[in-house]
C-alpha cells in the first residue's frame, strides 16, 4: 500500500515556513545571517535581480511588478538585512565615523559634546565609534590607526578643554574635524570651538550696561600676558573683556592670575582682592569654580551679591543655579559643538573635500542670567 502523501495546500504568504539551509524561522536565535543569495533562491530569481529590486532599481530596469513584489516579500519573510559593510566598501564609504577624545567621554561637564555628536551621526545614518586616550599620545596614535584600519569615513579629534594641539600626520589621509581644539600648525581640518572672545566681550558688556565702571578679574591678570600658558579659553576670554572695556575707555581695575581654577583658588584670590579693594562693585570670574570660592569670600566679608558686588562667570557649571543668588554664567554649548563637528565631517565625506579647509567655526556661549548682577550703586 502506498502511504498517503501530505497535503500540498499552499499556506498564506505571511505564514510560510522556509526550511532547508536557512533553518527553522520560528527560532531565529543562532541562525546564520540571511544573504542576498538566500533571498534570490527563495524567491526564484537570480542574485542580480534580487539586488536590483532591493536597491530600488527594479522599475528602472523594467523588472515586472510581480517579481519585485515577490522579492520584497521574500526578503521581509526571511528578515533579510543588507551587509552594510560590504555595501559601503563597494561604494567607497562605510557610513562610520570615529571620535577620539582625551577625557571628554568620561567628563560630566563636556559629555554633552558626545551626546550631540551621536545624535547628529544617527540622524544622518552614520555610526560613531568613540575612543578615549586619557591624554596619552601613544594610545591616541593606536586608536587613530585602529579606526583608519577599519576604514571609517572620517575622524573627529576632540579635547575636554579648548587647546591648541598638533594634528597627527595620519589625519592627512582621512577627512578630519577638530572639536574643541585648534591646530598648532597648518592643516586642512576645520575646527569647531566655543566663541570665547565674544563671551568675554559679553561679560564685560553685561556689567557695563548695569553701570559698573570698576571691574575686577579673578583668574587672570589685567594684562594680556597675565594668563597661564596653554589656556586658550582664558586667553580669549581676557582678550574679549579687554576689548570691550577699551571701547568704553576703561581697563580692568585689577586682576589676579591663577594657575589653578578651583573654588579654594577663587576664595583666596577674592580675599586678596578685598584686602586691596574693600568694595569691588563688580567681578568677572574666569570660570564657575572660581566664582564658587568668590561667593564664599564675599559672604565672609559681609558683602551681599548682587547688592554690594555683581558677579558674572563662565561655563555654567551644574551648581551655578544652586548658589544664592544663582550665578549668572555663560554656558559652553557642548551639545551644539558636537553636532556641528559631525555635520561638518559628513559634509566633507560626501563632497570628498573640506568646503573651507582649516576654517575655525566659533559658536556663541549663551548667558544664563540668574540674579548675580545688579545696577551699580556708584
Automatic annotation (TrEMBL):
Pfam families: LacI (PF00356), Peripla_BP_3 (PF13377). SUPFAM superfamilies: lambda repressor-like DNA-binding domains, Periplasmic binding protein-like I. Keywords: DNA-binding, Repressor, Transcription, Transcription regulation. It comes from the Bacteria. Residues 10-19 have a biased composition (Basic residues). InterPro entries: HTH_LacI, LacI/GalR-like_sensor, Lambda_DNA-bd_dom_sf, Peripla_BP_I. PROSITE patterns: HTH_LACI_1, HTH_LACI_2. CDD domains: HTH_LacI, PBP1_sucrose_transcription_regulator. Transmembrane segments: none annotated. Residues 34-91 form the HTH lacI-type domain. One of its GO terms (molecular function) is transcription cis-regulatory region binding. Residues 1-30 are annotated as: Disordered. This is LacI family DNA-binding transcriptional regulator. It comes from Pengzhenrongella sicca.
Amino acid at each position: 500500500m502506498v502511504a498517503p502523501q501530505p497535503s500540498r495546500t499552499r499556506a498564506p504568504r505571511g505564514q510560510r515556513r522556509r526550511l532547508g539551509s536557512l533553518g527553522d524561522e520560528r527560532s531565529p536565535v543562532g541562525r546564520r545571517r540571511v544573504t542576498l543569495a538566500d533571498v534570490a533562491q527563495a524567491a526564484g530569481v537570480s542574485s542580480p535581480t534580487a539586488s536590483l529590486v532591493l536597491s530600488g532599481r527594479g522599475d528602472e530596469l523594467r523588472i515586472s511588478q510581480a517579481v519585485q513584489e515577490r522579492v520584497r516579500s521574500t526578503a521581509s519573510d526571511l528578515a533579510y538585512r543588507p551587509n552594510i559593510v560590504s555595501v559601503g566598501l563597494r561604494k567607497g564609504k562605510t557610513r562610520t565615523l570615529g571620535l577620539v577624545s582625551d577625557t571628554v567621554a568620561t567628563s560630566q561637564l563636556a559629555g554633552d559634546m558626545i551626546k550631540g555628536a551621536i545624535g547628529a551621526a544617527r540622524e544622518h545614518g552614520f555610526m560613531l565609534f568613540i575612543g578615549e586616550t586619557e591624554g596619552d599620545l601613544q594610545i591616541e596614535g593606536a586608536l587613530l590607526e585602529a579606526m583608519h584600519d577599519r576604514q571609517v569615513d572620517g575622524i573627529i579629534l576632540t579635547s575636554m578643554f579648548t587647546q591648541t594641539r598638533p594634528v597627527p600626520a595620519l589625519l592627512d589621509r582621512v577627512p578630519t574635524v577638530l572639536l574643541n581644539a585648534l591646530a598648532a600648525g597648518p592643516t586642512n581640518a576645520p575646527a569647531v570651538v566655543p566663541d570665547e572672545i565674544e563671551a568675554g566681550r559679553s561679560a564685560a558688556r553685561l556689567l557695563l550696561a548695569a553701570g559698573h565702571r570698576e571691574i575686577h578679574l579673578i583668574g587672570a591678570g589685567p594684562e594680556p600676558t597675565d594668563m597661564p600658558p596653554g589656556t586658550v579659553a582664558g586667553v580669549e576670554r581676557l582678550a574679549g573683556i579687554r576689548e570691550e572695556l577699551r571701547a568704553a575707555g576703561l581697563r580692568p581695575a585689577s586682576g589676579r592670575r591663577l594657575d589653578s581654577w578651583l573654588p579654594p583658588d577663587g576664595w583666596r584670590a577674592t580675599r586678596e582682592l578685598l584686602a586691596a579693594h574693600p568694595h569691588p562693585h563688580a567681578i568677572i570670574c574666569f570660570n564657575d569654580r572660581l566664582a564658587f570660592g568668590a561667593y564664599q569670600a564675599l559672604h565672609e566679608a559681609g558683602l551681599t551679591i548682587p547688592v554690594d558686588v555683581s558677579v558674572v562667570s563662565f561655563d555654567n557649571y551644574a551648581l551655578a543655579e544652586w548658589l544664592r543668588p544663582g550665578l549668572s554664567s555663560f554656558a559652553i554649548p557642548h551639545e551644539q559643538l558636537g553636532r556641528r563637528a559631525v555635520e561638518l565631517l559628513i559634509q566633507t565625506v560626501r563632497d570628498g573635500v573640506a568646503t573651507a579647509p582649516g576654517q575655525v567655526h566659533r559658536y556663541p556661549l549663551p548667558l544664563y542670567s540668574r540674579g548675580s548682577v545688579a545696577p551699580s550703586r556708584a
